[in-house]
Amino acid sequence: MCGIVGVFNLNGEPFGLSALKSMSQQMAHRGPDGDGYFVDNQIALAHRRLAILDTSPKGAQPMTSKDGNWVVVFNGCIYNFLELKQELRSRGHEFVSTTDTEVIVEGLAAYGPDFFKRLNGMFAVGAWNKKEQSLYLSRDRFGVKPLYYWFTGKTLVFASEIKSIIKHPEFRVALNKEGLNEYFTFQNMFSFNTLFQGVLMLPPANTVKITSETTQIKHQSWWDYDFSVQDDSLSFEDAIRETERLFKNAVSRQMISDVPVGSYLSGGMDSGSIAAQASKHVKRLTTFTCGFDMSEVTGVEANYDERRDAELMANHFKTEHYEQVLNAGDIRWSLPRVVYHLEDLRVGMSYPNYYISRLASKFVKVCLQGTGGDELFGGYPWRYYRIFRSVSQREFFDLYYEFWQRLVPDHQREELFNPEVRSAVDFTHPKRVFERVFTFNDKLRYDKPEDHINNSLYFEAKTFLPGLLQVGDKLSMANSLEERFPFLDNDLVDFAQKIPVKYKLGNLEQMLQVNENEFKKRNKTYQEFDDGKNVLRKAMMNFMPEKIINRKKQGFSAPDESWYRGENADYIKELLLNKKTVSSEFINPDYVRKIVNEHINEHINHRLLIWSFMNFEWWCRIFLNNESFE
Questions:
Q1: If you count Cβ atoms within 10 Å of the first and of the last residue's Cβ in the chain, which end, N or C, has fewer?
Q2: In terms of domains, do 266 and 138 share one?
Q3: What digits encode the pLDDT tens for the residues 131-141?
């Protein structure tokens, strides 16, 4: 819901409205329903509006509190705003709109910045306090809504998207080489770096205060995941009942809207369970599925098309169902658009997300998404079982880091980069960043298998999940569509963390009996088990088709391994193995050629790395070379 941007000149110099409008215009796609501006000497705030709650002019931003002290720009949706509104009314606060933004500004007037901790929802907020002459930036618990900033010591610029920061008159685009090192290790950022030199992302669950005296932005976390305190008194049956109750409440909360709400329907349990509950709140729920042309697909990817299962559920829940079918050629048109909107490259082959959100945006303004269920309820058992018998913290770190080098492992990264990059980066940096995710939290323990699994859940919720959420936000908002995530409801998350591991992984006891000395048998067993989300599966059985409940987990991904060897092979070579390839300034072309040839000719699956090479090539063209792709 919307895009925000702001400039605070700490030295008191005024910032002009014309420059602010230019910055705001860069993300007009996030808010096609209107724009608003607040300029007062050294502070300038702008808002692009996607009208979801109170679509009248009363909901326009920037919005000022009734006492005149707070001016707020806000991106997101607060699901408990009606309860908070009632409380604020009891304290004498008056409201003229039915929007959640007004609850934020009046909440700040009543309680100050601590009010952010009480919000159940997704948000990125810039709030100017006139009395203090200070700027507050805050972001939701889970990192659903992005918030970037650039701080020079005399100027603070923040925005929902980096392309707005780029338009600041003093900003100069340059590659953050250490960020590149991190990205080509993890296909993600585990720190809060970006590929843009000087631009950082505000961490989730953080509120920072900037005044004219600020010399350094210090992140102040006010919440963190805690899987370490499990409720051992909880029975399996109680866990099932409470999971079902809280899940239903979460979906109900997130249906709040003054515009149509739909739901993605992938064919899996998470999206299916959301559609099942959402269909009870509207007369005819609209659902959307993205499928793939499988005519030239082989191997495990032959099962990637989920349309049949999605159609089964659409018929079961009587939804108005729409499908889009992608083929191999769809990547050529979409890739530069995807990179332009992502800006800050993150996890996985995401162009299907772009297409499905584009389809959904033709019918609804809000779409429910199933992201979060895997990270909370243990949906990736083949990852946890790799490390759950670790005997120490060090062994845990080493084994898990080896797995999370998704793209280029440490021993090959010198071969990956050109000399200029090699001399500028520290090859030990990615592992330090990796370990810092764990050592930041002193509650984590490394004594028994359950500890290691809970540590894995913590890690993925802190790293992999924010990457997924960022991709979801950027590519849905590219199409002026708001995505919501019922699994990321405060109450549901708080309870899910307390559920014992043995209720999430149905075969934990069996896995504990596997002989560690039979290496081949052990590794094969670990990789084949797909027993995650056990308690969630049981909780969904009352309202989901049994076939879907027991379906083997399938991620949302195009069959790119096959397509990269077939129709898209020429496009990959044209883009990456060309004298005009821009990224060759940083990436060794011989290494890229080796990877592409191994994938196409030797059938070594390098689809993740090739995707990232193509993304980075377009990133260089668009953001370094200002190349047009229209």
A1: C
A2: no
A3: 999 999 999 99
Structural domain includes residue 415: no
What percent of the chain is predicted at pLDDT more than 90? 83
Q: Do 461 and 509 sit in the same domain of this protein?
A: yes
Q: How many domains is the chain built from? A: 3
Q: Tens digit of pLDDT for each residue in 310-360? A: 898 999 999 999 999 999 999 999 999 999 999 999 998 899 999 999 999
Q: Give the residue numbers spanning the domain of 256.
A: 236-326+346-378+454-549
If one counts every other C-beta atom within 10 angstroms of the C-beta of residue 418, the result is 15
State whether 205 and 294 are in the same domain.
Answer: no
Is position 242 within any domain? yes
How many CA within 13 A on the CB side of residue 588? 17
Between the CA atoms of 389, 188, 353 and 597, what dihedral angle is there, to the nearest 10 degrees? -90
Domain-embedded: residue 157: yes
Helices (H), 153-235: 162-166, 177-186
Q: Cα dihedral sign for 269, 275, 278, 279?
A: negative
- Residue 416 forms part of a structural domain: no
**What DSSP character marks residue 33?**
T
pLDDT at 519 over 50: no
Residue 403 pLDDT > 70: yes
For residue 459, report the phi and psi dihedrals to the nearest 5 degrees: -60, -45
* 252 and 206 in a common domain: no
Please write the tens of the pLDDT for every residue from 532-579: 899 999 999 888 877 777 666 555 678 888 999 999 999 999 999 999
Closest CA to 624 of 200, 339, 364, 376: 339
